[in-house]
Design a protein that fits this description.
Layout: H1 10-37, H2 42-49, H3 53-61, H4 68-77, H5 89-96, H6 105-133, H7 138-160
Length: 161
């Protein structure tokens, strides 16, 4: 049996690109927050990178998309590194799924409900972050929310089954 690549429809591709942009943004935001807590200002970062402060501010607000390479450069200036890990989807699902047999149906329901509650809490946190950080960028916010809605729907479907 050989592996067949999955056909990606345009809506899913848009969602995947939005997720990638969000991942870059949240990584930069976290790294900058750590350094800002130590006294670094956006102006200092802009000077270190020989960039305009307004450009750095747009990146840190999430209103300007950047490439993975640019993220690596900015993170280096913040004394952080990019760690990229590629994992086959089937390993993710196997890792996240509790496959041990259960003795009682009630225990199954409880575990399923608990997992659903955790997913719902995480989704709400992501939604709050997306709304807060993308107020200025209606298109980015809309795509992030569409992607988030799909993830929530998929999570609900997975936990109901």
């Amino acid at each position: 049996m050989s592996f067949m690549a999955t056909k990606i429809d345009p809506d899913l591709e848009d969602d995947l690109r939005a997720d990638a942009r969000a991942t870059i943004f949240f990584a930069l935001r976290e790294a900058f927050k750590r350094r800002a807590d130590q006294g670094l200002a956006a102006k200092d970062l802009a000077e270190a990178l020989d960039k305009d402060k307004a450009y750095i501010s747009r990146i840190l607000k999430g209103s300007h998309a950047i490439t993975f390479e640019s993220m690596a450069v900015i993170l280096e200036a913040l004394d952080h590194v990019v760690e990229l890990k590629v994992v086959p989807a089937e390993q993710l699902f196997r890792t996240n799924r509790d496959v041990r047999p259960r003795l009682h149906q009630a225990t199954q329901r409880s575990a399923r409900e608990k997992a659903f509650d955790q997913s719902e809490h995480a989704a709400k946190s992501l939604a709050r972050d997306a709304i807060t950080t993308h107020r200025d960028d209606q298109v980015g916010s809309s795509r992030a929310l569409v992607s988030l809605t799909r993830r929530i729907s998929d999570s609900i479907t997975a936990h109901k089954g």
